[in-house]
């Protein structure tokens, strides 16, 4: 991977750009230019045919100034050191923007999980925890789901951890099945959080929801929930895509039927060509590239990082972009979009609903008391709307982009904690 498309280098370039305008000590930016710990492990897995395959797993503790590190585990063929570090840096900023008592982390395994049987997937998940057991813990580093991992995988992982430690330890991992101490509302949390941010933004901009045409790139868990909630409020979801391609309908889709069909067939275009929904709505096939460049009001990238680059930024027509994925817009591409007066609600705020409810799950596990779904939703709303207001306010008052405001708030919080810790951080980095 060359420097140009190295996502971690891009994340660091953005951090420096954001730091320059943030009016914080350069020491804070310096500190965040380095990942504290990056563990690489070889994970041997016995396959169903009796052979052994070796997968590469990573866990990165980016920075723990604000608390134990927190972040998901991704199973994806493109997982690599650079990506894990970039995602862990963004988790550090995200937790600080939301006001959570966490630092940032991320993990991943380079694997196409769709090629594994359920038993192989379980063995891989357990192998990951065996390799990382000394690096995770309720007060050290707390994993959670990310792209292509889910509650079931978290369940296997927490079980493996408890077996190794010979004790119950539900707070070590969030996003677990409810039966193992998972939280109500965690599955919808990322989508709901993004929806709440959009609702707040719509309020300030005076949007009339039926007039807003929305395109969603990535129809996984987060994409589905944000689409569902927006549609309930009257928004028109005119385009949806997944890794295989997309569909477009000027009149808008019925999200529940698309989701049901996707689950059945696991691919959006196939759904619309071979199944009954075909007859329900007018639609046309589009590519992911076409979806991003559609003439819509609101574009929601909800898949992977780096999809808007200097190559397509000038073709983006949507005036508003909400980042439900982590890092969908590269730094230089964002500069082009801002030059075109686009408003971008950044990932570190827009998709923080997931980690906020992860925090609630961790709190519930530690207190041994489960909250109701209503309570979770209320607390999520309170917390994310507060974060949204702070970012919006800073953007208006300090004339910054929303991302620059979010980074400014995060860097100031991390800076305050560095100062409160005393000189430890400086010694830790060998500066004095
Ligand atoms: N993977 C999610 C994210 O990128 C959630 C992390 C968590 O809940 O710790 O924000």
Polypeptide structure, described:
- The chain is built from 17 helices and twelve strands.
- Strands 9-8-7-6-10-11-12 form a seven-stranded mixed β-sheet, sandwiched between helices. A five-stranded mixed β-sheet has the order 1-2-4-3-5.
- By secondary structure, it is an alpha/beta fold.
- The structure holds glutamic acid.
- Glutamic acid (GLU) binds at residues 70-72, 144, 146, 174-175, 326, 351, 354-355, 358.
Key features?
17% strand, alpha/beta, seven-stranded mixed beta sheet, 2 domains, five-stranded mixed beta sheet, Rossmann fold, binds glutamic acid, single chain, globular, 432 residues
Outline the secondary-structure elements.
Layout: H1 7-21, H2 26-31, E1 37-46, E2 52-63, E3 69-76, H3 81-98, E4 103-110, H4 118-132, E5 141-145, H5 151-165, H6 189-205, E6 213-217, H7 221-232, E7 236-242, E8 245-248, H8 255-265, H9 268-274, H10 277-280, E9 284-286, H11 288-292, E10 298-301, E11 320-322, H12 331-339, E12 343-345, H13 347-350, H14 353-367, H15 373-398, H16 402-421, H17 424-428
Parallel strand pairs: 3-4, 3-5, 6-7, 6-10, 10-11, 11-12
Antiparallel strand pairs: 1-2, 2-4, 7-8, 8-9
Bound molecules: glutamic acid.
Residues 70-72, 144, 146, 174-175, 326, 351, 354-355, 358 line the site of glutamic acid.
